[in-house]
Design a protein that fits this description.
Elements (H helix, E strand, L loop, with lengths): L1 E7 L10 E8 L5 E5 L6 E4 L2 H8 L5 E5 L2 H10 L11 E14 L4 E7 L13 H14 L4 E2 L3 E2 L2 E8 L5 H8 L4 E8 L2 E4 L3 E7 L2 H9 L4 E9 L11 E6 L4
Parallel strand pairs: 11-15
Antiparallel strand pairs: 1-2, 1-5, 2-3, 3-4, 6-7, 6-14, 7-13, 8-9, 10-13, 11-12
C-alpha cells in the first residue's frame, strides 16, 4: 500500500484550487481511494491509478506525488548487502544549472538538470545511466516543480529528454563507463553534452515568470537525499568531445 497526494498546478474548473488538493491510497491490488481536501470534501474509489489520472490529471496540470518515495529509496539503500551503515547520517545535495533558453511566447524555460560530464565542488559526478534513470523516474513518479525546494509553483514540465550520443556504440560504452565520444551542442546560451537531462518547464504564475525574466530565478536546482556510505572513487572514463556550433 502506498499513499500519495494530488498537486494541482492549474485549476481548470475553478473549484478545487491549486496546490495539495487531495490525498489518496493505492492498495496492493491496484485499487485507488481519493479523498478531496477542498471546501466540499468527498471520497472516490478508482479501479487503478491510471483511471484516476485519466479523470483528474488534466494533461499534466494535476500531478500524482507519492508521499513515501524518499523513505522507500532510503530503505532500499539500507538493505543493499550491508553496504550502508545504520549509523550513516542522511545527506542532502543541491545541484544548480543555469537556465539555457527561454520561449517568451509560451512562457517555457529550458535547462540542463543533470550533466554526467560535470564534476561538482565535492569532486563527484553522476554516471550517464544514473542521469537517464533519474530523468525517467522523475516523469514516472514526481513531475513536481518547486521554488527553492519549498513552495509549489504554478508550473509543470512540458518537455524532457536526454541528449543523444554520436552513435549507439558510444551510448553503450558510456553506460559501461568505457572510453567513448560525446556531442557538445549549443542550447540557447549554454552548451549541452550527450547524456544530459534537459527539462522544459511552463511557468503559469505571472509574478514567477517576471522573476525568470529579471534573472532572479535563473537556474534549475535538483535536490536529493540518501544514506551516506563509503565507496571507492570511480574515475570518469576518457571522453572525446565533438563540438557542434549552432547555425547562425
Amino acid at each position: 500500500m502506498r499513499t500519495f497526494h494530488l498537486n494541482r498546478v492549474v485549476d481548470e474548473t475553478g473549484v478545487s484550487g491549486t496546490g495539495r488538493v487531495a490525498q489518496g491510497v493505492v492498495f496492493d491490488d491496484g485499487t485507488c481511494v481519493l479523498r478531496w481536501l477542498t471546501a466540499t470534501p468527498g471520497t472516490t474509489v478508482f479501479a487503478s491509478l491510471e483511471a484516476l489520472t485519466a479523470v483528474h490529471g488534466h494533461d499534466g496540470k494535476t500531478q500524482v506525488v507519492y508521499d513515501d518515495l524518499g523513505q522507500q529509496k532510503a530503505a532500499r539503500l539500507s538493505r543493499q548487502d550491508g553496504l550502508v551503515s545504520k549509523r550513516s547520517p542522511p545527506r542532502g545535495e543541491e545541484r544548480h544549472t543555469p537556465i539555457a533558453k527561454l520561449d517568451k511566447a509560451k512562457q517555457i524555460v529550458y535547462g540542463v538538470v543533470l550533466d554526467p560530464y560535470i564534476v561538482d565542488a565535492h569532486d563527484d559526478w553522476v554516471p550517464p545511466n544514473e542521469v537517464e534513470q533519474t530523468a525517467h523516474n522523475y516523469l514516472a513518479s514526481h513531475r513536481l516543480i518547486r521554488r527553492q525546494h519549498d513552495s509549489d509553483l504554478a508550473a509543470y514540465p512540458v518537455e524532457s529528454w536526454v541528449m543523444p550520443y554520436p552513435t549507439p556504440e558510444d551510448y553503450q560504452k558510456a553506460v559501461a563507463l568505457q572510453p567513448h565520444r560525446i556531442w557538445r551542442l549549443k542550447l540557447g546560451s549554454e552548451y549541452v553534452h550527450s547524456g544530459s537531462w534537459v527539462l522544459g518547464t511552463r511557468i503559469l504564475d505571472p509574478a514567477v515568470w517576471q522573476d525568470v525574466l529579471s534573472g532572479e530565478l535563473g537556474a534549475y536546482s535538483i535536490g536529493g537525499f540518501g544514506v551516506r556510505r563509503e565507496i571507492g572513487k570511480v574515475p570518469m572514463p576518457q571522453v572525446e568531445v565533438l563540438t557542434i556550433e549552432a547555425p547562425p
